Automatic annotation (TrEMBL):
UniProt protein name: Uncharacterized protein
UniProtKB keywords: Coiled coil
Highest taxon in the source lineage: Bacteria
Coiled-coil spans in chain: 157-198
UniProt source species: Catonella massiliensis
InterPro entries in alphabetical order: DUF5702
């Protein structure tokens, strides 16, 4: 009996350990599976936070950033992430096999203004890289001129129909004028025939009469009467017209000099109000040397931008390829002075965006003036070097300088005056070229050569953008911020935009199947349940 009892006890103890082992394995599997489900759902919850990206930024500028201010900061983001987490856990109740997961903290990263707007530059360059690849087909079609040919054909047909309609209208008007002239000619002809008939009747009657003296007197009297009627009638008409003319002149209002001056003053005020309303006006300062007075330029201005300080962990810079892509991005999303304004265009804080990216000033006029002055300086140097190679021009300049020096009694100043004259010629030629460029015309690369390479205004802008490539990200972000404020809402701030999030997730599991104390250390027991922490990171800036 003792032997049989010992076997029973042994088997009972063994069964207990086997049951504990099986329970531990099942519990471990439950915890592992629930933890993986919680981890996957945590990633999805963070991606849903990033899916709250600022829609206007994407629609207008094709970049992804989340507006932290619209999510009520990090606290609001944690609440939103937890609400996503609850809905994503199996069953939609936030609990899976006794396991719950929740965000304990969530912080934003990769700010739009951080490190000289590095993360904006990274996204913009990536968009142009893949956007250019996606637009190959369209470029090929454009290179084949299929679209352009169709558009030109449509425009030509439209213009032809318009010309035809105008010609038909002119033809109808000419037919009417011809009919009127024919009617007037017939009236004149009838009048002449009546006069001829009257004169012929009188002569015939006189020829039958024997009393020549009496008949001659009658004929003379009749002719005098007809002549008097024919002469006096036009005189009466002329007199009547003079009377009417004098009456019209008398009705014309007469203004005093003060009234005229007041009218001119009111006109100038109304013109200024119109310019203020449209944001346009005449060029001033040095810009007036390159743009005629009748040409209106934009007078728009932007306010200065103040961003909060953003801490940067490490210094990062864009490479040469990314800078080239940024220039393409700028040309695709911003206009310049010669860009055509369309009705469907969205509002712009500054109309000359590319000029702002180059010069960085706060008004369209100042930016355009800065670009025009740069072109003027470059072309002045080119023309100066060209004139120095022309012996005939240098001889002419020396002759003029000698004449001026003799008048001033300063023979030693001939060389200074000569080179001053050459510089004056160079500046005048450069001014003419800048004026042509701002009209949309092209100029030869080398002075005095009409053939060969031609330069356009956009060619100079491209060169200046390359020089200013290091400052492009910051200036683009500032201009984008101003445009979004103008188009949508004034509360937009670039320093509230983030492209990534870091999160900490707490996963808690209640023991259900079997529990042994030594397992608490394995799964980091803290309270009455097992708890584990997860570190997550998601970003919209991807290669």
């Amino acid at each position: 009996m003792k032997v049989k009892g010992s076997i029973t006890i042994f088997l009972s103890l063994a069964l207990l350990f086997v049951t504990a082992l099986i329970g531990s394995l099942l519990e471990s599997a439950r915890v592992t599976v629930a933890g993986e489900i919680a981890l996957d759902n945590s990633y999805l919850a963070e991606q849903n936070i990033l899916a709250e990206y600022q829609r206007e930024l994407w629609n207008d500028y094709h970049i992804f950033f989340v507006d932290a201010s619209l999510l009520n900061g990090e606290e609001g983001a944690v609440k939103l992430a937890n609400s996503y987490m609850d809905k994503m856990m199996p069953g939609g109740k936030g609990d899976y096999l006794g396991t719950t997961a929740s965000f304990t903290s969530l912080s934003f990263k990769e700010n739009m203004t951080e490190n000289n707007c590095y993360f904006f530059a990274k996204q913009a360059a990536a968009y142009m890289k893949y956007g250019a690849a996606a637009g190959v087909d369209k470029k090929l079609i454009n290179n084949a001129n299929l679209i352009k040919t169709a558009e030109d054909g449509t425009d030509t047909l439209r213009k032809g129909l318009k010309i035809k309609v105008e010609a038909e209208k002119k033809l109808i008007e000419l037919e009417r004028e011809k009919k009127k002239l024919e009617e007037k000619a017939n009236d004149i002809k009838k009048g002449a025939e009546n006069i001829k008939e009257i004169i012929g009747t009188e002569v015939h009657a006189q020829s039958k009469s024997g009393l020549l003296g009496v008949e001659e007197a009658k004929r003379s009297e009749s002719s005098n009467q007809i002549h008097t009627k024919m002469v006096e009638k036009p005189k009466a008409m002329a007199k009547k017209i003079e009377v009417q003319k004098s009456e019209v002149q008398d009705d014309t209002p007469k203004y005093t000099e003060k009234e005229v001056a007041d009218a001119k003053k009111k006109y100038k005020e109304s013109q200024k109000n119109l310019d203020d309303a449209t944001g346009d006006g005449s060029a001033r300062g040095t810009l007036s040397f390159f743009i005629s007075g009748d040409k209106k330029i934009s007078k728009r201005k932007i306010s200065s931008t103040a961003w909060g300080e953003v801490q940067t962990e490490k210094e990062e810079k864009t490479d040469l390829v990314e800078k080239g892509l940024l220039i393409l991005y700028a040309k695709a999303h911003f206009k310049n002075f010669l860009s055509k304004v369309k009705e469907e265009d969205k509002k712009e804080a500054l109309r000359y965006g590319l000029e702002y990216l180059i010069a960085g000033k706060e008004s369209d006029e100042a930016n355009l003036s800065s670009v025009a002055n740069r072109i003027f300086g470059l072309r002045t140097i080119v023309w100066y070097g060209y004139f120095l190679t022309r012996k005939d021009k240098m001889a002419e300049a020396e002759a003029i300088a000698a004449a001026i020096a003799s008048v001033l009694a300063l023979p030693a100043a001939i060389e200074i005056i000569k080179y001053g004259i050459v510089m004056g010629w160079s500046m005048d030629e450069a001014r003419k070229e800048v004026k042509s460029l701002l009209k949309g015309d092209d100029i030869p690369l080398l002075p005095g050569k009409s053939e060969g390479v031609k330069l356009k205004y956009q060619s100079f802008l491209d060169s200046f953008l390359v020089i200013a490539s290091g400052k492009l990200p910051i200036r683009m972000v500032k201009l984008i911020e101003q445009n979004i404020k103008l188009r949508y809402y004034q509360g937009f701030r670039a320093d509230s935009m983030y492209a990534g999030v870091n999160g900490e997730v707490s996963v808690k599991t209640m023991p259900r199947i079997f529990r042994l104390a030594f397992l608490d250390g394995i799964v980091q027991r803290k309270t009455d349940n097992w708890e584990a922490g997860l570190q997550l990171s998601q970003s919209l800036c991807r290669e």
